[in-house]
Amino acid sequence: MSRWPGGARAAVSVTFDNLGEAAEQELGAPTPTGGHYSVTTALPMVLAELAHTGTQATFFVEGVNAVTYPEALRSIVAAGHECSYHAWRHEEWNRLSEAEEQENLTRGLAAMRACGIAPAGFRPPGGLLGDRTLELLKEHGMSYCSPAGAGVANGQIVLLPFAWRSVDAYHLLPSFAALRSHIDGSEEPGGADRVADALLAAVEHAIAGAGHASLVLHTWLIEGERDAVRTVLSRVGAAAERGDVWAAPCDQVARWVRQHPESFGDEASLDTTSWLDPA
Question: What is the reported pLDDT for 279?
Answer without folding.
Answer: 67
